[in-house]
Amino acid sequence: MIDMDRFVELGSFLEPGRPPKTDKAAILIDAARMVTQLRGEAQKLKDSNSNLQEKIKELKYFIVSVAKISD
């Protein structure tokens, strides 16, 4: 079983600079919310990265095409 100190530590990590919560349920709800938020942000970054990689490919193809035309 996890002792209360670990919950307080988690709570202070979730909201630095604020007095830590002592209610285990509230701490777990905040932690779950944070995990969900971070997963969403991670997915957005993955999508953005994929889009940027695709644009890089398109630009490389364009540069090669222009170089061939100018030869």
Write the layout of secondary structure elements.
Blueprint: H1 4-14, H2 24-70
Helix pairs in contact: 1-2
Question: What would your notes on this structure say?
Answer:
With about 70 residues, this protein is mainly α. Helix content is about 80%, strand content about 0%. The protein has one domain (about 5-70): Irregular (MYOD Basic-Helix-Loop-Helix Domain, subunit B), CATH 4.10.280. The protein is rod-shaped and about 70 Å long. The model has no long low-confidence stretch (mean pLDDT about 90).
Helix amount, in percent?
over 70%
Q: Assign the CATH class.
A: Few Secondary Structures
Overall strand count = 0
Q: In the CATH classification, which architecture applies?
A: Irregular
Unreliable residue stretches: none
Work out the count of structural domains. 1
| Count of discrete alpha- or pi-helical segments spanning 4 or more residues | 2
User: Distance between termini?
Assistant: 72 Å
Beta-strand fraction estimate: under 5%
Return the CATH topology. MYOD Basic-Helix-Loop-Helix Domain, subunit B
Quaternary structure classification? single chain
Order of helices and strands: HH
From the spread of the alpha carbons, the general shape counts as rod-shaped
What is the overall pLDDT average? 92
Sheet/helix structural class:
mainly alpha
Rg from C-alpha positions? 23 Å
Largest sheet: none
Protein name: Transcription factor ILR3-like
Subcellular location: Nucleus
Organism: Trifolium medium
Main location: nucleus
